[in-house]
Design a protein that fits this description.
Blueprint lengths: L3 H21 L7 H30 L8 H23 L4 H10 L1 H18 L3 H7 L1 H6 L2 H17 L5 H20 L20
Helix pairs in contact: 1-2, 1-3, 2-3, 2-8, 2-9, 3-5, 4-5, 5-8, 8-9
Length: 206
């Protein structure tokens, strides 16, 4: 489809636009900072999961064109995570470095969130075609950091809300299914057709 990429771009950007509209018109919750933080965090996780779902969907359906959207969706996940982190650093902590470092060290959900974001940084930097050419095979190895980022993001959400039921668990379950699919696919039995040995045709006696 000619306009498929612009459509995906607008759909991925629309949560940020709606959140900005709510902020400008005073339609956030009772705790605006908490509302902004939670919304951007959830969309980061959602887009991470959608990005991870591209490969399984392509392998199951054979729809190879879908791979065109993976980089865009991954960059949008990084975009929302950057906003999420910025809200924490500037609005929540007032860029007080001492308290931020103490928070990272003492609160495990903050530690997990920082791990998730840190793993996404090299993925965003090396997402261009130039970096893919320069890194070669190492590019695929590096981009497996998305698995670590996804796991850390799920832990960040679960530890933040301090419950192991409901929405945080659903996202974690989806992530485990997506990672499990990759393991099963990698170690699946070969489906190549068995080659029968050639029969020797003996000449008939005269």
């Amino acid at each position: 489809m000619r306009f498929s990429k612009p459509i995906v771009f607008v759909l991925a950007l629309s949560p940020a636009l709606w959140l900005g509209f709510r902020a400008l018109t005073g339609r956030l919750g009772v705790n605006p900072i908490e509302d902004l933080t939670l919304t951007t965090g959830i969309w980061t996780l959602r887009l991470l999961l959608v990005t991870l779902a591209i490969t399984p969907l392509r392998r199951i359906t054979g729809w190879n064109e879908i791979i065109r959207y993976r980089r865009m969706l991954g960059l949008f996940a990084f975009f929302y995570s950057s906003i999420h982190l910025s809200i924490y650093l500037f609005l929540d902590q007032g860029l007080a470095l001492r308290f931020i470092l103490e928070d990272i060290a003492k609160r495990r959900y903050i530690t997990a969130g920082m791990v998730a974001f840190t793993c996404m940084v090299p993925l965003a930097i090396t997402s261009t075609k130039g970096w893919i050419r320069r890194l070669g095979r190492r590019w695929q190895m590096l981009h497996r950091l998305i698995y670590v980022s996804g796991l850390a993001a799920c832990l960040h959400f679960i530890w933040k809300v301090k419950v192991v039921i409901g929405e945080p668990v659903y996202y974690a379950a989806i992530l485990l299914v997506l990672l499990g699919f990759r393991i099963v696919w990698r170690y699946r039995p070969s489906r190549r057709p068995r080659v029968e040995p050639a029969r020797v045709i003996r000449p008939l006696p005269d």
